[in-house]
Amino acid sequence: xxxxxxxxxxxxxxxxxxxxxxxxxxxxxxxxxxxxxxxxxxxxxxxxxxxxxxxxxxxxxxxxxxxxxxxxxxxxxxxxxxxxxxxxxxxxxxxxxxxxxxxxxxxxxxxxxxxxxxxxxxxxxxxxxxxxxxxxxxxxxxxxxxxxxxxxxxxxxxxxxxxxxxxxxxxxxxxxxxxxxxxxxxxxxxxxxxxxxxxxxxxxxxxxxxxxxxxxxxxxxxxxxxxxxxxxxxxxxxxxxxxxxxxxxxxxxxxxxxxxxxxxxxxxxxxxxxxxxxxxxxxxxxxxxxxxxxxxxxxxxxx
Length: 303
Description:
Largest sheet: 5 strands, mixed
Number of helices: 11
Strand content: 15-25%
CATH topology of the largest domain: D-Maltodextrin-Binding Protein, domain 2
Distance between the termini: 57 Å
CATH superfamily of the largest domain: Periplasmic binding protein-like II
Radius of gyration: 24 Å
CATH architecture of the largest domain: 3-Layer(aba) Sandwich
Order of helices and strands: HHHEEHEHEHEEEHEHEHEHEEH
């Protein structure tokens, strides 16, 4: 029986394996490699003989990796990346680059990062362009898969094999209300909290959030009187109403209406508001993309 230890492996086969894993479609992988589809299919047959596994199974959208392919994916991907970097490190000069980066981010994230990013670009990469599109947390994966964006920032509970996710910043949730709200000035109890009328920021359009899931586990529920899809609207809406809302502390602290708001602790334990970056595997070792991710990570570390 053949095994991967019996004879040397043609590096081109691993390169083709990588392309098929990224695209999950033999035709697109062939286009990516500038090869014919029969040539890619032939290479896959050779790999199947070497690994004694089908590696990919046909599905309506293309192919789906077998458990063996998933097992091989990480070491092959990382190994090829190290080889490419050692043999021909890609050159990227931010000072002369005219590249455009398209980001999918929510208004809150844009308000945190863009004012700090623009001076960096003006100083070190004056010809680089930035395009921002809305991130709903449910459209990011599709946009990345279709190369419509370069990077998404938000909280991503589901990704795919071909998407990389990195946590770059954490924040904590607090409860906000207007200064003269009936509940202001006292320690908020769970009973008071669930009886109040709530404002919810929902990027997905859903009428409930993660706090509602926690409350359901306690056989409790709250009234969400208003949902919006923009964080920056919240302070003004809260300051002029009897609604209360759970918000990341950083967002509240940078609001011009902070002095009109009462900030209090939530009466239940809530997971931190982690901010993540997500990008496609095809850009993992792209030097320009790596440089851009580094700028965002550095900004997050300084907050």
